[in-house]
Write a structure and sequence with these properties.
Blueprint: E1 4-5, H1 6-9, E2 23-24, E3 26-28, E4 38-41, H2 54-59, E5 64-67, E6 79-81, H3 85-97, E7 103-108, H4 113-125, E8 130-132, H5 142-147, E9 156-160, H6 168-176, E10 180-183, H7 191-194, H8 197-205, E11 216-220, H9 224-231, E12 240-245, E13 253-261, E14 264-271, E15 275-281, H10 286-301, H11 306-312, E16 324-328, E17 331-335, H12 342-354, E18 361-366, H13 375-387, E19 393-397, H14 401-410, E20 414-418, H15 421-431, E21 437-441, H16 448-457
Parallel strand pairs: 3-4, 4-5, 5-6, 7-9, 7-10, 8-9, 10-11, 11-12, 12-13, 17-21, 18-19, 18-21, 19-20
Antiparallel strand pairs: 1-2, 13-14, 14-15, 16-17
Helix pairs in contact: 3-6, 4-10, 4-11, 12-13, 13-14, 15-16
Length: 462
């Protein structure tokens, strides 16, 4: 974070004249990261209340404390009261963002946000100093923290935006002020909080709020809900849509001749404005092709050279546990367990069906969370898909995954149903053989990485 005057950073939060001109060097939400000349923001969490550390923050040199109520030990002149710490973070992020002028792509969507963000970063990095959202820091704390990393040297940026309720993406987009927007698809994640895919569509379209007039908006032409938004006039006419896809022949940016090759995908990228390019990306699955097309579409419509954009897609690097390939004692493990939804589970199983394996294909699939009323049917559908994916044996983990196991077993697939990490470890140790390939996929809350870590430690196969 570049130093910024306190009155500028805290504009709209503190009363006029109550904040000085001292330079703020950091915005901190974790008491372990306190430093002199910072603003400490108190969050009342389920386990820890940041207000309990507010006096300590002042003692360690914090210039100001943003809190939801007065705190003993924090002088009134250093206290900035705000009913919502989340909204305070977004406001400070917006104030800081005003200092800089990078070309920025804002990314949202139900599935593929992070992979698309990484493709955008690969492309933007080919043209200059680029900044990206780290991990999945895409909420009302993560997005401001990304904005606080902007400097005068930042030429390009890509910011991922997630949500759990209506209104969140609008606030994030207005703060980030992206130069281009991108929506990957409209899925069923967050149905428990939003109630319908129509509401999810409305929430994702909120990214338009922060885009300037004439800005490009990359949209998936193969997504029925995004096409519905076009046909029903939901897309702001002041923006410039650029449609990408595989099946939709009318899309401006398309992938043709899509095929799986060792270590990734190969296809011909066809652009109605810039011609055709041969592309190969180092990630498997048809869904990854969509993510690459999205990044290319947004970047080229920002005016970046099309040929360089297409070539830079090959520089994509996987992050976290997204299709991370690990080899142990002759077995291949595909760690795709950073998160899961019905759409991403379907895409992962489709990828696995095409994956070249020297031996059998084994799947470790766990619960998909936050599905609300469709939880049972979504897991049953996943079980049916697993049975059609050329899998030799399915191991499930979690309560909801019992439905998945039932459907897979009905379809003739060998299934082992587990309720604990230890059960899954023991089951897989008895199933795996040298030459096998294991796919691991579940929502982040299931913590499949614990099973994998135990397997890697106890890799002796029976």
């Amino acid at each position: 974070m570049q130093p910024i005057p306190a009155r500028m950073l805290l504009a709209g939060l503190a009363q006029a004249g109550s904040v000085g001109s001292e330079m703020i060097e950091a915005v901190v939400t974790d008491s372990r990261k306190l430093c002199p000349n910072c603003v400490f923001v108190c969050f009342a969490g389920q386990r820890v209340d940041g207000h309990d550390f507010a006096a300590q923050a002042v003692q360690q040199g914090a210039a100001y404390v943003v809190a939801n109520h007065p705190v003993e030990g924090v002088p009134q002149r250093q206290l900035v009261l705000c009913p919502s710490s989340h909204h305070a973070m977004v406001r400070m992020g917006a104030n800081y963002r005003m200092l800089f002028h990078p070309k920025m792509i804002g990314v949202t969507g139900s599935v593929g946000k992070t992979t698309t963000k990484e493709f955008c970063y690969a492309v933007l990095s080919a043209f200059g100093n680029a900044l990206k959202t780290e991990g999945n820091q895409n909420n009302e704390i993560g997005v401001p923290n990304t904005l606080f990393r902007l400097t005068d040297e930042t030429q390009y940026a890509v910011v991922e935006m997630g949500m759990s309720a209506l209104g969140e993406i609008e606030r994030l987009s207005r703060a980030a002020k992206p130069s281009a927007g991108l929506i990957t698809c409209i899925g069923v994640s967050h149905l428990d909080s939003l109630g319908s895919r129509d509401n999810i569509l409305k929430a994702k379209l909120e990214i338009c709020a922060g885009l300037p007039d004439g800005a490009p908006l990359a949209l998936n032409a193969d997504d029925e809900y995004l096409v519905k938004a076009r046909d029903t006039g939901m897309l702001p006419q002041r923006l410039r849509p650029v449609w990408y896809g595989i099946d939709a022949g009318w899309a401006q940016v398309r992938a043709r001749q899509v095929e799986t090759v060792p270590g990734g995908m190969r296809f011909v990228l066809e652009d109605t404005e810039h011609g055709e390019f041969a592309v190969q990306i180092p990630v498997l699955g048809r869904h990854a092709v969509y993510d690459a097309l999205a990044a290319y579409a947004a970047a080229t419509r920002l005016g970046l050279d099309a040929a360089r954009c297409a070539a830079a897609l090959a520089d994509y690097q996987s992050t976290g546990m997204r299709q991370n390939r690990v080899e142990k004692n002759g077995c291949v493990f595909i760690e795709d367990c950073y998160n899961a939804s019905p759409d991403s589970m379907k895409a992962s199983l489709a990828m696995f069906a095409d994956y070249p394996s020297a031996g059998r294909k084994i799947a470790l699939l766990g619960d998909m969370l936050e599905l609300g009323a469709i939880e049972e049917e979504a897991h049953r559908q996943a079980g049916r898909l697993a049975a059609q994916s050329g899998i030799h044996h399915l191991v499930t983990l979690g309560k909801a995954s019992h439905f998945m196991a039932e459907e897979a077993e009905k379809a003739g697939l060998a299934v082992t149903c587990c309720d604990t990490h230890d059960q899954a470890v023991q089951a897989l140790r008895g199933i795996l053989r040298p030459g096998d390939t294991l796919l691991a996929k579940a929502s982040r809350g299931v913590q499949l990485e614990k099973v994998l870590a135990a397997l890697y430690e106890k890799i002796t196969l029976e």
